[in-house]
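Input (structure):
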């Protein structure tokens, strides 16, 4: 038939009459329900939609369906057979190559296309084959290891069982992650994978100006467009027209004024996404543009336009210790420097998405990937003006977050749409919308002045730090605080004067981002340490050892550290590892120079600064015999579901694989607070351990009462409880075995609830004191602004091309202080992921704006690191037990901090060029090289 095409998908034939203009991705997802191919950008920049077409890896968003006549298409759904994973999937699971999982199906398919053609690929060939697939979580290293392993298995050179077995699951072992199977098989687990038959689609009209008065909004034209069901604006919000974790002043819909180009002005709800998109053009908004503020320094000027009525400086944090003027007067050397770090996009691969509907009893349900369902519930209920109990927020796995999903984007609008229309509503941002709406890592400018004595003791630091807070507060206050309190690096410096400012501008709001204000200052402070060491002709490890924090030494805020501070060990480990690899360093090629740089950093675990920090957890066995672990933490790829299950299993004795985890569902889980500040392993971990102890006691009491057996007389297995000796008669016991279902029945007969809850509150912390000098009448604990810190040191080895300024990172060695590693494989993989993110921060990434208008409007322009940029990485876990559960602290954030400063110092070591404004693009290095004379003509 004319205009009919035929193709195969996973071996099944399809005939399509008039295929139209749709892409293969749309066809797979919306028409076939094959949801393994993800939509991360719809522009061919992320690779999450990769499938195989006629043996080649192809990005499905770039292919028109009409071009596929006669093609054979393979998707992730066709890979595993009879519940058995393909060797590539199996290897991804075993190597810990799956974190958030959003890139995973595309990555697996790209790997399959490679291995179908080449079963013995080199590392370089693997990197080349995966270069169109971005992974923001893993740093690619585990993925590359997985592809190599899969190749060896398929090729037959590795006689390893293909079956993924869970063998060791205890604390300090690395069981298969709880969510790995779902993610590696491309199961529809993300919010955008949820479909309802009568679902409406919502699209936001965003501001056309960075700063403008809004005189009127006329939506009449949009109402008349095909498929449009409803148009909503600020007038339609029944409750509070504002959200924000700390200050709910960011408008759900802009009303009289827009303050950045991500401000929503109106929402269209239509039968299809395309109809909603088309109708946006018919909303008329009368704007009156205002003079904007586009840098925090402009914003601090006395005559700057006011973005909010209380002034543009939204926060000023001071750290004061000792007497800096006297200390500088006796310093042998004084080193000054001014540094800037760029605004950076999180670039999680899953764009923000939510699905909402209203239950028969009036409960508004929102399914979305948030970093804190309870916080979202409060913001949604306030906007809708209904009781919090009438809103249920259910966490869907986040396809990456890194802090960027702490604030809502579409969730309140989606709930509002469902309430107004009575129909389910889905809203998913396009990549471009996501880029302009979402929060960013703060741009910061840092002026530093350090004073040191000839023997390497840093005796004074003075700093002025200015951060671009953007248009709304979001989490800028604690970010600016963090930049101040860790602003001098992990050193005990007796005389300190730091001023840290957050300033409103008409740029996107600065928010939480892995490192949370400690990343920017790690760059400035560590460049200063490198300069001091060079000025004194001192070894970079030595100067850090002289000044480094350790047990009994105080931070610049006066907090005396405990035994769990293992900073010096991170230095020692990196020093040893570097000495080992120095012997085998490659000789630089012609026109190339090799350099080595060292950097350290630290960061808090938990909220601190006097804030109540708590989390709850519960464990229960239900009537069907299912063992549930319910936690408030969100697993956005960092592995909290897994480590918390390891803890629950360790304490209860119930096998790891028996647990079903439910996380962050406000109807089912106790509030765990926002997943931020590297806090969940510590805080939710304590809560889980507490709940596990209680459940163990409940079961123990039950079995003594019912069958008369003590703990030593029974053990838990995968299906139930094995009684090791005969007990009293009980109808639920069969062949010395009680199933979990039977256990529930026994408990019910005895009016015992097989459920334990526990709420853990973290050790008390205190606000930052006006002065950090210890005063006689002030107990030392009052200086504890945090209950724990974690430390990191890295060495970078780089090669710089003298002619082009191009930098190749050859190797990163990283040592991480983390208390105890609950799941070591995951810890290593977190380190690798953070390092590669740090390479991007140091060398290429920047979210650029000109006068508030986005320049980097797609993923490609952000210059995220790809597989081909991955260096050799050696990661070292430094385990010094802490007060955390099983001795663990947190570790997800701090490893990103040391990478960029180590690389920049290594570039200086290689060339004599010090880049003080990140990212260190080849153009900046080349500019610096013009002033360097090496005494040869190369
Ligand atoms: Fe690759 Fe998250 S696991 S993007």
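Output (sequence):
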């Amino acid at each position: 038939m004319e205009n009919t095409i035929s193709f195969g998908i996973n071996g099944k034939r399809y005939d399509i009459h008039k295929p139209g203009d749709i892409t293969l991705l749309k066809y797979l997802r919306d028409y076939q329900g094959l949801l393994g191919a993800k939509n991360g950008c719809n522009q061919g920049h992320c690779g999450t939609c990769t499938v195989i077409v006629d043996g080649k890896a192809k990005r499905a968003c770039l292919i028109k369906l009409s071009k596929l006549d006669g093609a054979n298409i393979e998707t992730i759904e066709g890979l595993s057979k009879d519940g058995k994973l393909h060797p590539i999937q199996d290897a991804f699971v075993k190597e810990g190559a799956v974190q958030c999982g959003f890139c995973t199906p595309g990555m697996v398919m790209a790997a399959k296309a490679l291995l179908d053609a080449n079963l013995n690929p080199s590392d370089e060939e693997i990197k080349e084959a995966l270069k169109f697939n971005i992974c923001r979580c893993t740093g690619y290293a585990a993925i590359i290891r997985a592809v190599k392993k899969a190749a060896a298995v398929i090729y037959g050179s590795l006689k390893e069982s293909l079956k993924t077995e869970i063998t060791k699951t205890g604390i300090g072992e690395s069981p298969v992650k709880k969510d790995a199977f779902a993610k590696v098989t491309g199961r529809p687990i993300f919010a955008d994978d949820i479909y309802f038959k009568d679902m409406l689609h919502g699209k936001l009209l965003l501001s056309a100006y960075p700063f403008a008065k809004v005189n009127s909004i006329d939506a009449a034209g949009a109402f008349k467009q095909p498929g449009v069901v409803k148009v909503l604006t600020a007038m339609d919000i029944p409750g509070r027209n504002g959200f924000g974790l700390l200050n709910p002043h960011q408008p759900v819909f802009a009303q009289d004024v827009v303050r950045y180009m991500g401000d929503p002005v109106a929402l269209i709800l239509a039968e299809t996404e395309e109809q909603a998109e088309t109708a946006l053009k018919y909303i008329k908004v009368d704007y009156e543009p205002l003079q904007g503020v586009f840098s925090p320094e402009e914003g601090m000027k006395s005559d700057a336009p006011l973005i909010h009525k209380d002034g543009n400086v939204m926060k000023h944090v001071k750290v004061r210790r000792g007497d800096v003027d006297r200390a500088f007067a006796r310093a042998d050397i004084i080193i000054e420097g001014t540094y800037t770090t760029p605004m950076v996009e999180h670039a999680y691969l899953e764009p923000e998405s939510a699905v909402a509907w209203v239950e028969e009893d009036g409960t508004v349900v929102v399914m979305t990937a948030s970093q804190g369902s309870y916080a979202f519930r409060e913001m949604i209920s306030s906007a809708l003006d209904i009781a919090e109990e009438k809103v249920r927020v259910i966490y869907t796995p986040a396809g990456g977050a890194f802090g960027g999903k702490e604030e809502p984007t579409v969730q309140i609008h989606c709930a509002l749409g469902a309430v107004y229309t009575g129909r389910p509503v889905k809203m998913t941002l396009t990549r471009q919308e996501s880029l302009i709406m979402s929060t960013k890592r703060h741009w910061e400018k840092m002026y530093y002045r350090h004073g040191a004595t000839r023997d390497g003791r840093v005796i004074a630091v003075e700093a002025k730090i200015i951060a671009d807070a953007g248009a709304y507060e979001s989490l800028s206050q604690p970010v600016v605080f963090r930049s101040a309190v860790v602003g001098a690096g992990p050193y005990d410096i007796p005389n300190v004067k730091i001023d840290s400012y957050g300033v409103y501008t008409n740029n996107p709001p600065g928010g939480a981002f892995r490192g949370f204000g400690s990343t920017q200052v790690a760059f400035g402070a560590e460049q200063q340490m490198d300069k001091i060491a060079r000025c004194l002709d001192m070894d970079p490890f030595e100067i850090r050892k002289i000044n480094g924090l350790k047990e009994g030494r105080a931070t610049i805020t006066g907090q005396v550290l405990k035994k769990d501070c293992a900073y010096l060990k991170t230095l020692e480990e990196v020093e040893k590892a570097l000495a080992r690899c120095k012997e085998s360093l490659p000789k630089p090629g012609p026109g190339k120079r090799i350099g080595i740089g060292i950097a350290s950093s630290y960061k808090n675990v938990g909220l601190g600064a006097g804030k109540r920090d708590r989390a709850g957890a519960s464990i229960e066995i239900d009537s069907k015999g299912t063992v549930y672990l319910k936690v408030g933490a969100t697993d956005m790829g960092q592995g909290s579901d897994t480590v918390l299950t390891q803890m629950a299993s360790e304490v209860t004795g119930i096998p790891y694989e028996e647990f079903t985890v439910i996380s962050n569902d406000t109807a089912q889980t106790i509030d765990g607070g926002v997943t931020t500040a590297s806090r969940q392993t510590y805080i939710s971990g304590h809560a889980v351990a507490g709940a596990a102890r209680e459940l163990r006691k409940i079961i123990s009491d039950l079995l003594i009462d019912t069958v008369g057996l003590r703990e030593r007389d029974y053990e838990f297995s995968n299906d139930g409880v094995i009684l090791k000796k005969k007990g009293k008669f009980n109808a639920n016991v069969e062949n010395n075995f009680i199933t979990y279902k039977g256990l529930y029945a026994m408990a019910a007969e005895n009016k015992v609830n097989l459920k334990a809850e526990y709420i853990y509150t973290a050790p008390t912390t205190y606000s930052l004191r006006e002065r950090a000098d210890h005063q006689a009448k002030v107990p030392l604990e009052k200086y504890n602004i945090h209950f724990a810190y974690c430390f990191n040191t890295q060495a970078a080895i780089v090669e710089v091309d003298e002619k082009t300024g191009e930098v190749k990172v050859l190797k990163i060695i990283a040592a991480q202080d983390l208390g105890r590693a609950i799941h070591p494989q995951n810890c290593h993989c977190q380190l690798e992921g953070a390092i590669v993110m740090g390479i991007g921060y140091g060398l290429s990434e920047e979210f650029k704006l000109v006068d508030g208008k986005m320049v980097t409007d797609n993923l490609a322009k952000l210059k995220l690191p790809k597989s081909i940029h991955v260096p050799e990485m050696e990661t070292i876990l430094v385990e010094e037990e802490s007060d955390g559960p099983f001795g663990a602290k947190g570790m997800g954030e701090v490893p990103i901090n040391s990478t960029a400063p180590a690389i920049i110092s290594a570039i200086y070591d290689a060339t004599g060029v010090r880049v003080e404004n990140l990212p260190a693009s080849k153009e900046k290095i080349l500019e610096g090289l013009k002033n360097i004379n090496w005494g040869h003509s190369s």
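Notes: The chain is about 30% helix and 25% strand. Residues 710 and 743 are 15 Å apart (CA to CA).
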